[in-house]
Amino acid sequence: MADAPPVARADVWRTLASGLGQTLVTAGVVLLLYAVYQLWVTDLFTARDQDRLADRLRTEWTAAPPAGDRAPAPPAPVGVGEPYVVLHVPRLGEDWSRVVLEGTTEDQLSQGPGHYVGTAAPGEPGNAAFAGHRVGRGSPFLELDAVRPGDPVVVETADGWFTYRVLGDPVSGDVTADPSGIPGVEVVAPSRTEVIAPTPGAPGAGPTGAYLTLTTCHPRYSAQQRLVVHAVLDGPGVTRAQAPDGPPALTEG
């Protein structure tokens, strides 16, 4: 068979190049739309879920008997997927608060932060551990790397409020300089599950205090590592009767 004329061969390459270009453009548009969905559209869905969960929790708490002047009790257990407590981290914003669900599967984390099943309840000995998305699905822990030693993390329950303080040296800002030996902030591999042990970083050991741990992906837009914040309970907590508007720590930012 005779070779195709040079002009015909050029047309073939031109057609192939055009088709490849269109495919790449289409793929780029699809990726862009996916990024928009993950970064912004899911935030709208999560905000709607948070409003619904907050309304439900407030209704349930209003119906609960008041704690009076006694120390608030740790929150009662709830089923996986149920609203559990409200988390306040003033460093992340003056009005930053999120309803926390029980459980840390995507079903829960798509609606807000989740409480690791099997970890301590807030206010009791052990490690009350929570997870949340860094980017997308409301991005609750987007700025978690901004926390500093001594910063408050407040957990609101039906009875009242428990205030935790990020470990480390508040004077120097050194997150590793805590008498407990537990760092206030660390970056670890996803396999390092001992960060949510009863005593953070000590798998198999019993609780040596009342701790709180927050975990999220690190760095932003990646799940290669985990950013972890550890805090310790600062006092017995206050009831709603003692502090109707919450503890003073809520105004620290």
Written account of the structure:
The chain has 253 residues and is α+β, with helices and mostly antiparallel strands. It has helices at residues 6-63, 106-109; strands at residues 83-88, 97-102, 114-115, 126-131, 152-156, 160-166, 185-188, 210-218, 225-233, 238-239. The N and C termini lie far apart (80 Å). Residues 24-37 have low confidence and may be disordered. The active site is at residues 133, 217. This is Sortase A. Keywords: Hydrolase, Membrane, Transmembrane, Transmembrane helix. GO terms for molecular function: hydrolase activity.
Supply the CATH superfamily name.
Answer: Sortase
SS element count, helices: 2
Strand order, sheet with most strands? 1-2-3-4-8-9-6-5
CATH topology title: Sortase, Chain: A
> Low-confidence runs (pLDDT<50, min 5 residues)?
24-37
- Just name the CATH architecture: Beta Barrel
Number of domains: 1
Helical content (DSSP H or I, runs of 4+): 10-25%
Alpha-beta content class? alpha+beta
Number of strands: 10
CATH class, named: Mainly Beta
Computed Rg: 24 Å
What is the 3D shape?
A: globular
